[in-house]
TrEMBL record:
Limits of the HAMP domain: 191-243
Organism: Paenibacillus solani
Family annotation (Pfam families): HAMP, HATPase_c, HisKA
GO cellular component, one term: plasma membrane
Name of the molecule in the record: histidine kinase
Length: 484
């Protein structure tokens, strides 16, 4: 089975290799331990036999004097079933064997040399003549007089090696079966990852071509489920953003066309001549008003563009919050008066903050202007502020029409308008939010439909000695302690 290159192949190969190496190590260690166990058992059996037989040979060792009889007694006392016993002299020559066969060669294997040194040792190798794999264990023994002999036990390992081979084949078969199961499992695991990825990739490619109505289908789990949900959400947001963008283009086109139509109409009318000065004055006022309106729209779009590109620069200085709000009230007094709305500044304190006065004026002009716009006739707008730790919280509370929960979640989104018929670009609150954040502050909105809206802007107080009023620079001593 050939698996083409890709994640599937990588998963299968890595998983298979890890299990294969682990199995190989386990089987090698197991087989080595098994071989060591069997060989040690044979060696211990021989050495234990020698230790057990040696005390029974003691009387013969002390009384025997004939070498031939001595060798016969050694064979009789020390021979072991299914094992050849060889009696060697210190030179390695075979003097007698339990099998009766004469061996003419001199034996110099490691077990013999170790036995002469006083240690019990074993040697494993091929026996000359037969070619069998054997184990030889040698021990020295004295006849009680001047002669020293080497007792050498030789036993065949063919039967043990045959058993070890069968166990090896059995272990290899088990390992092969495990690897086959692992291979099948790893392919299934790879498919469970790759197939959803292929589906996600296919849908993503369609999204990349602009088909944002397609969705990733399938109940995927864990990271794949999160990925598919994220892509579906992204496509949904792009569709929504495109709809908002289309609505914005339609709205801004209308917003631009209305003043341009007025300007063009009055320009053509005034250019034709024949009007009295009063009508000419009215026409010029309309042209000036609509031009200001166009300038306001363009500046709002430019501000939004700068904020999106992080190019908005703040010119910070000392700002008196009370004086700032009083100026806002004066700027909107005429508009509020026409609707019978009262704007009341409730707080008497005069906290000082460090910020861009023009941008902060833009922030609160937009917030209070919206409060006036959505207040009932003869309504009241309350402006207040209070110190909250290291912040000053400025609240604009109206008692107008309010905002529904559905719209409240989106009211600060760019291009969004609660009521498109009211005009505007839908960028006012989005720009306001970003300007507040540029000052290190936050803006919260709380509203209940039919009961008004409260906008809370929190701006950080400066660190160090800052006066509560006036235009002193930070650090000048006026007897007022630090604001915290």
């Amino acid at each position: 089975m050939i698996i083409k290159k890709g994640i599937r192949r990588q998963i299968v190969l890595h998983y298979f290799l890890v299990v294969f190496i682990a199995l190989l190590l386990i089987e090698v260690i197991f087989l080595i331990a098994l071989r060591t166990y069997y060989y040690d058992t044979v060696y211990n059996h021989i050495t234990n036999h020698f230790r057990t037989a040696n005390p029974f040979y003691e009387p013969f060792r002390l009384s025997a004097s004939d070498n031939a009889n001595q060798l016969s007694e050694m064979i009789r006392h020390f021979e072991l079933y299914n094992t050849e016993l060889q009696i060697l002299n210190p030179a390695g020559q075979v003097l007698s064997t339990s099998t009766g066969f004469e061996i003419e060669q001199t034996i110099k294997t490691s077990d013999v040399t170790q036995a002469l040194a006083g240690n019990s040792s074993r040697w494993i190798g091929k026996q000359q003549g037969t070619g069998q794999i054997v184990m030889a264990v040698s021990q020295t023994i004295s006849n009680g007089f001047e002669n020293t002999y080497i007792l050498r036990y030789v036993t065949s390992l063919e039967f043990i090696n045959e058993k070890l081979m069968k166990m090896t084949l059995f272990a290899v078969s088990i390992g092969a079966a495990v690897l086959a199961i692992v291979l099948a499992f790893s392919i299934g695991l790879a498919n469970s990852i790759v197939k959803p990825l292929n589906n996600i990739t296919t849908v993503s490619a369609q999204m990349a071509k602009g088909k944002f109505n397609v969705r990733i289908k399938g109940d995927y789990k864990y990271e794949l489920g999160e990925l598919s949900s994220t892509l579906n959400y992204m496509a949904q947001e792009i569709v929504r953003s495109n709809q908002v963008k289309d609505d914005f283009i339609s709205s801004i086109s209308h917003e631009l066309r209305t003043p341009l139509t007025s300007i063009k109409g009055w320009s053509e009318t005034l250019d034709s001549g024949g009007y009295d000065p009063e009508e000419t004055k009215i026409g010029m006022q309309i042209i000036s008003k609509e031009t200001d309106r166009l300038i306001g729209l363009v500046e709002e779009l430019l501000d939004f563009s700068k904020l999106q590109q992080n190019e908005m620069k703040l010119v910070k200085g000392i700002v008196n919050v009370r004086e700032l709000l009083q100026e806002i009230m004066l700027n909107l007094w005429t508009k509020a008066e026409k609707k019978g709305v009262k704007i009341i500044l409730e707080s008497d304190e005069k906290p000082i903050i460090y910020g861009d006065v023009n941008r902060l004026k833009q922030v609160f002009l937009n917030i209070v202007d919206n409060a006036v716009k959505f207040s009932h006739e003869n309504g009241v707008i309350n402006l207040s502020f209070e110190l909250e730790g290291k912040f000053v919280a400025i609240t604009v509370q109206d008692h107008g029409i309010g905002i529904s929960d559905e719209h409240l979640r989106r009211v600060k989104d760019r291009f969004f308008q609660v009521n498109p018929l009211n005009g505007g670009t839908g960028l006012g609150l989005a720009i306001t939010q970003q300007l507040v954040e540029l000052h290190g502050g936050t803006m919260e909105m709380h509203s209940e439909l039919g009961h008004g809206t409260a906008v809370i802007v929190k701006l950080p107080l400066p660190e160090g000695k800052i006066p509560m009023a006036g235009g002193l620079e930070s650090g000048e001593d006026d007897g007022v302690g630090p604001i915290a």
